[in-house]
Design a protein that fits this description.
two-stranded antiparallel sheet; alpha+beta; about 450 residues; 8 helices
Length: about 450
């Protein structure tokens, strides 16, 4: 066991668009033109503006070089000389789509489809763009993700070791309550809904629903079923600045085995401030009230009833499109029904992810794998001593680290694998926890 745990710990610590632009941009792979080529093509157009082949060549080069506005101007000039050019309508639709002028893109696509002799392959391509435009311009937008797999944990019940204290006297915990390894199957799902309020500021209502369930092979009394919902508007204080605020309502419900365990309701708010193209500042405050339900297995659960106030301030850094880093400071204050379950907490977190070319390509085309690492450290001090355990007030330090790899196998489906480590050190042995986990599974995103 110790050898396996050490191996996973060392492994963990050692880990540190969609549719093609058009047939014009596809030609760029063969021989990407230069600015000099663009200048020569422009000179040819100026010499003979009615030469449609020259105008199309200029538009092709401009599109490959990313100058979509110049390409649009050239193609629209072609339509002045000859409005019956379905291919030009298609290319203008693609270019306006890239420029996010979706209504203009839709107009040109509709004009292209109006021609009776449009080839089926072109009609299919245009319809794909129209579906994306319809999705992007709809007031209602939905995204879904679901994942499932298998997880092994060395301390699945988050229990201490054998030696504990009872009224400050050394004692040994019954074997059935000591830490135990186990494997579970799990499934999680998430739905996000955006309702666009319209208007110039692009304000919208965002609702997130998350569900999670797990079933243990042996420790069935800690089977989990969890539901959470959060909803609130995203308001742009000034569209040009990118600053947004989001007040929200939240609620959750948790079951352990077949018994209700916890329900909570709360309010909160987030603030996001872009400091530059690469750096973003964000902050969140949340207040919630929780009720815990007693059962034959957990007769004293109601001692945890109370309220919680938490906050977090983070800064995100994106040095390149394929690298994302975020660091944060967090705080939490929990006031429970009994003082020895109340505590204050401060902590820090650091997360990073990087996209790399797939070392083993599991898809039909080129793809990237995503490696991510999330770490978190926190210190907690409780408000009073638990007289059943010790006259000493409980203090503890917790460290978590999780590393994961995600590899796509199709446009919407991928496989993932990860390792995790949780270590809780306390001045009282009753609360010390050490757990290593390994997991893997499938996920889908729509």
């Amino acid at each position: 066991y110790m050898t396996l745990q050490s191996f996973f710990r060392r492994t963990l610590l050692g880990l540190v668009g969609g549719i093609a632009l058009s047939c014009m941009s596809a030609q760029a792979d063969e021989a990407k033109p230069s600015e000099a080529d663009l200048d020569r093509a422009f000179a040819t157009v100026i010499a003979d503006p009615s030469n449609l082949d020259a105008s199309f060549e200029y538009a092709r080069i401009a599109a490959v070089l990313g100058d979509f506005e110049a390409a649009v101007s050239s193609l629209e000039r072609m339509l002045i000389y000859n409005p019956n050019l379905p291919r030009v309508h298609v290319e203008l639709g693609v270019l306006y789509f890239r420029l996010r002028s979706l209504e203009a893109a839709r107009s040109y696509f509709d004009q292209a489809l109006a021609y009776p002799d449009v080839p089926d392959v072109v009609r299919e391509r245009v319809n794909l763009y129209l579906k994306q435009i319809e999705k992007a311009t709809s007031k209602h937008r939905f995204t879904f993700s679901v994942s499932g797999g298998v997880r092994y944990q060395t301390n699945a019940n988050a229990a201490p070791g054998r030696d504990i204290l009872v009224i400050d006297l050394p004692a040994q915990l019954d074997p059935e309550f000591q830490e135990a390894a186990d494997t579970n199957v799990f499934v999680s799902g998430r739905m996000r809904h955006h309702y666009d309020f319209g208007g110039q500021r692009s304000d919208l209502l965002e609702t997130n629903i998350s569900v999670y369930g797990s079933h243990q092979y042996e420790l069935e009394n800690i089977d989990v079923a969890y539901f959470e919902m959060e909803t609130g508007p995203i308001l742009h204080l000034a569209k040009s600045s990118g600053i947004t605020v989001r007040p929200f309502l939240t609620g959750s419900f948790l079951m352990l085995s077949e018994d209700p365990y916890q329900g909570s309701v709360g309010v909160g708010g987030t603030l996001t401030v872009p400091l530059s193209k690469q750096v973003t500042l964000d902050a969140e405050m949340k207040a919630k009230a929780s009720d815990y339900y007693t059962s034959s297995v957990r007769p004293s659960a109601s001692n945890l009833d109370g309220r919680e106030l938490s906050g977090e301030v983070g800064i995100g850094f994106v040095p390149r499109n394929d690298i994302r880093i975020r660091a944060a400071m967090l705080g939490r204050n929990v006031k429970a029904r009994v003082e020895y379950q109340s505590y204050g907490e401060i902590g820090v977190s650091l997360s990073a992810s990087v996209d790399v070319p797939a070392p083993i390509n599991l898809t039909k085309g080129a793809s990237v794998w995503t490696f991510s690492l999330n770490t978190r450290g926190a210190s907690r001090t409780y408000s009073a001593a638990n007289p059943v355990v010790s006259a000493t007030v409980r203090e503890e330090h917790e460290f978590r680290a999780d590393a994961q790899i995600y590899a796509p196998v199709s446009t919407h489906v991928g496989v993932f694998a990860g390792v995790g480590w949780r270590d809780v050190r306390s001045n009282l042995p009753n609360y010390e926890i050490d757990n290593v986990s390994v997991m893997g599974g499938l996920s889908a995103r729509f």
